[in-house]
Amino acid sequence: MTPIQESASRLAIKMRRSPYRIVLLSTVVLVMLAVLSTHEVVDHPATAPKYLEGLFEGWPGGALSISIALLTLLFVDSVRSQAEKIEEALQHRLRSFEEIHMEALALLEWVTDEPPSEEVGKTAFYMTSATPVFGLEAKSTVKARWKELLEKRRAANADTKLLCYNWHALDGIGDSPLGRFAKKLAEAEPDAVKSWSEACVNAWNQYEELLPYGHKGIPEIYLIDEPNFGIVYARRSAGRERGIIYISNSASVGKRDKGAIAFTTEDRNWLMLIKETFQAQATDNAALHFPRRTEALIERDKKLYQAFQEQGNVPQPVKSQSCLPRLPNGERIQIQVFPGVFPVEDSWDTRYMMQAIDRVVPLLGELVRAGQISNGKGHPVAEIAGVDVGTGTGILALAMASHYEDIGSVVATDNYKPAVRNALFNFRMAAANYPSLCRPLGLQACTPAPTWTDYYVDDSMDRAAKMRVFDSVMKGQCCVVNCDLAERVYRHNDSEMMLIAFNYPAYQSPSNVFNTGGQQAGEPIVAKFLTDMKDRLRFSDVLLLPEITIREGGSFIGVGIENLAREHGYCTLQIDAGSPLPASDNGRAGGFVRVFALARLMDGGKPQAQHHPVLSKLSEKLSADHDHEIQGAAGYPERAPPAA
Ligand SMILES: C[S@@+](CC[C@H](N)C(=O)[O-])C[C@H]1O[C@@H](n2cnc3c(N)ncnc32)[C@H](O)[C@@H]1O
């Protein structure tokens, strides 16, 4: 639209809005003409139309009164149009995204930097945006300024709430609201956002910096699905409010070259809408709270980031052979790690769980073969069914399957689809390369060995290509189940006992890239698992869970497995003496892992393991089993002395 067309259309809109003004102006013109036509005013009546002549004859004050009345109306009208101009100013249009970003920053400054410092605590700032700092594509100087101002608000305890796009998705980060938006943005603005995954990692870094250890809820951050429109709201201590409404989402991001749809407002009604919309979305979601995050955890997350970034877009083989499950002939089962799936090489809890499996399975196997474990229905257990809950790469399930003399079958679960495909690929590879694993894995040895491309879904793939992968994965027998915890794992027959390993996500974290299955981690997820399993377990079934404790100075985070188990009606047996987690890079933090076997408490029974029919026998076997005390010989890390 040319500027002339634009002005014309604006005039037309105004005229439509106020037809009374046209009537008023026409009347003024007519009256002026009439006045001019009277002989008192002018001697040239020919300048006015004939029919107006003499209209005011004999009524000399009439012309004057009507003129004054009309002039008053014109004055009132001009005041009204001034008011409209002010209203327009109250809803100032923002025409580009840069303008929106700068205006949002200006509002943050308006409530954080401009007021005297003692006033800042009485102000409010609420915002929806993809990440805590407005603008995934913002320049680093602008981002630094945002952080500085948000820090200032934290220091002043000022009401600050941010609704940001959720990065969790069970299909992979690329399918999360943040991932989807970042992808579209990277397509639309390749100069500003080089890669969508890098943009997500930058977003996590923002959470890291804004939600440190000791976080008291300022800023309060909520993870939401992409909203239809974005809002910013700022209120000064004296009650003056301002806001922005803007449209920016993955649907509109490709149309950015056509300008932005956004306006700033001080209008009471718009501000009310902004506040209500904001409140509704915050109420629908829980604020992120990480009250017990320590520096050690933040450091751990950084390592996981690094692993995530270094992984690239293709599966990587596990290089360190000592991290891999071992067959009886000493051969290691090779494993590939798909992008985004929990890595093996940096995971000490995985190693210690593997050690525990290697220790417990042969002992349980001996008990089963000797007919010493009853199925609770008057018959001896004939077979052990291994279950690996939250399998990731499938490594613990493969560790169980490697004891094919003792394990009858193996099933693995994960609620994260890339992990399900990854585990299935590793299982099929294992079935092809190590025929003895075919039976426990319930797979035919397929030759040639499968290729990872049949199992891997890339975020850049279109829907049809993804569907082809799903079809090929889902064909045939499936020993990996995509479900929450062990929800869809069923007992095959009465004669089997279940050995269920769960190396759970240890702690809730804003940036724990490998816990995309949800924010549920640590104690809540273990408590849910124990509650879910309790009614499904027989007295012959055994759970294997690590107790992970991360220490830092006087504070520590961990899941007290013994207490939790007792609260949920289980008895416990400690399997190993406990092993240290390596100290953090700065040497200030460390941790400890010990693995427990849990079994359902018998009605009226005592919580001690020696009173449980299976754990008591396992306990005896463990104490007699000196061979396994020397861990170095098995190629795993040396075991450390128990914690003080
Ligand atoms: C700490 S990793 C352990 C992975 C693997 N078992 C290992 O030891 O290397 C936790 C795994 O649990 C999965 N997970 C998280 N929450 C889950 C849930 N509610 N149901 C099933 N799996 C879950 C995650 O996707 C992740 O693969």
How many domain modules?
A: 3
CATH class of the largest domain: Alpha Beta
CATH architecture name of the largest domain: 3-Layer(aba) Sandwich
Number of strands: 18
Distance between the termini: 77 Å
Number of helices: 18
Main sheet: strands, sense, barrel: 9 strands, mixed
- Sequence stretches where pLDDT stays below 50 over 5 or more residues: 630-644
Q: Would you tell me which CATH topology of the largest domain applies?
A: Rossmann fold
Compute the average pLDDT.
82
Q: Judging from the principal axes of the Cα atoms, what is the shape?
A: elongated
Percentage of residues in strands: 15-25%
Question: What is the CATH homologous superfamily assignment of the largest domain?
Answer: Vaccinia Virus protein VP39
What small ligands are held by the chains? S-adenosylmethionine
**Rg on CA atoms, Å:** 35 Å
Structural class: alpha/beta
Can you offer a commentary on this structure?
Helix 4 (97-112) runs parallel beside helix 6 (140-155) and helix 11 (348-369) runs parallel beside helix 12 (395-401). This protein is of the alpha/beta class. It starts with a helix and ends in a 20-residue tail after the last helix. The protein has helices at 3-17, 19-37, 60-90, 97-112, 117-120, 140-155, 177-188, 196-210, 268-284, 295-311, 348-369, 395-401, 417-433, 438-441, 463-474, 523-534, 561-567, 615-624, and strands spanning 93-94, 124-128, 159-165, 220-224, 230-235, 241-247, 261-265, 316-317, 336-337, 383-389, 407-414, 480-482, 496-502, 542-552, 555-558, 570-574, 579-581, 589-600. It has three domains: 3-90, no CATH class; 93-291, Endonuclease, Chain A (2-Layer Sandwich); 302-634, Rossmann fold (3-Layer(aba) Sandwich), CATH 3.40.50. Bound molecules: S-adenosylmethionine. S-adenosylmethionine binds at residues 342, 344, 347, 350, 353, 390-392, 395-396, 413-416, 419, 484-485, 503, 505, 515, 517-518.
